[in-house]
Amino acid sequence: MRYFRDKVVVVTGASSGIGEALAYEFAREGARVVVAARGTEKLAAIADRIEAGVAGMADVAGGDRASGGMIADRIVAGVAGAASMAGMADGVASAVAAGYGAGVPSAGRITAADRVEDGRGFTEGAAAATRGEEGCAAAADRVLVVSCDVSREDECKRLIDTAVEKFGGIDVLVCNAGVSMRAVLDDVSPEVLRRLMDVNFWGTVYCVKYALPWLQASKGSITGVSSVAGLHGLPGRTGYSASKYAMTGFLETVRVENLHKGVHVMIACPGFTATNVRLAALTADGSPQGSTPREEGKMMTAEEVAGRIIKGIRRRKRLLLMEWEGRATHFIKKFAPRLLDRLFYNAMAREPDSPLR
User: What amino acid positions are annotated as catalytic residues?
Assistant: First the structure.
């Protein structure tokens, strides 16, 4: 729990699926979370759950349990449990209240250098916690909602600027926003391919570009949520694979360029995950697919993926492969790439209404 305590985490694509699960998990870990997506109503509901969980910690310490939905209860239980183990149940609320606030100026533009000088406010925040009685009043300071279409550079810049103005810097950036597709190149409109590149690739580029000075200052972490399709070409997902390959190449270069600046870069490659990504996947003409061709019940859950991503960030891993599909793909590609071509083709061809023929 200590690793992410009071760190500022920006998550794109946070209105559903892996992004939403990450927001809850980071909040449970004690982070200050910036949730970004186009759907502000969904983001507001997520923020309410997170705030309910944080505010409820004071009640938990006193023997009550705050209500905020199932996931909010998980946040409350996790933080309260940690406080109990430390023998600090009575100080949980005021510890939360301190956060970054004690180390960040209340007015004026904050620079990356200022952020380092502040030491992320942790030491001063801890001292303030022993003095303060703010408790629940700090709940609203744990989460920030920002409407952002990552395919637009100006909105990505505004996202980063807003996060910095609110919390004083950035420690972790998770580029999770993405869109999928299902069509072969013979049939697909080039506009669909362009849309996938705009969201999956350029959305990552824009966010990393504007967050980089703050991540360099904090020696923070960048995570790109890629896919097994970013390890080997996935037939019927031409633009999706291309955009994830592009993301991987970009992030690997960022890692090398920042080799001596302390910035951690991780590429996370979940396999098929039980989210709504296939419902929103674009077809050949750009319309949403509206249904899933796969058995969602047999896939990893978004919560499982989020948990592994957080563990990977904590361990500062380079590449995160989450299940046998990813590990097998990574291994077979090295030694038997033609076999992998056939395995991928056969797997996609067996899907109901497969575009492969």
Answer: 240
